[in-house]
Amino acid sequence: MFGEENNSMLDITIFDDVTIQVVVALIGASVIVSITVFTIRRIIKKRGENRHIQFIHCTNCRWKGNVSRYAGQCPQCKQPLGDKKARFT
Predict the structure, then answer these.
(1) Average pLDDT in the 4-19 region?
(2) Whole-model pTM?
(3) For the purposes of burial, counting CB atoms within 10 Å of the CB of 31, is it exposed (0-12), middle (13-18) or buried (19 or more)?
(4) What is the DSSP string of 53-71?
C-alpha cells in the first residue's frame, strides 16, 4: 500500500527519538570502551613495579619469595626482615 513502512524490532521508538537501535549501539560502544580501558590499565599496572611488594631472600632459612614491604618477618622461619637481616634481590 502507499505509505508502507519497513518496521523492524530495532526501529521501535522507546523515548522521543530514541530507538532500540540507538540503545543497542550505545551499549555496544560502552562495552568496547570498558574492555579497552580495563586492558590498558592492566598493561600499565603490570609494567609498573608494585611498591608494596618486594622479593626477599631470607639469610636464615634460604626462603625466597615475595612479601609485603611492611612484613616484619620471614613467613617460613619468622626471622625478622629488614635491611640488615634479609638480602633484597
Answers:
(1) 75
(2) 0.45
(3) exposed
(4) EEEEEETTT--EEEEETT-
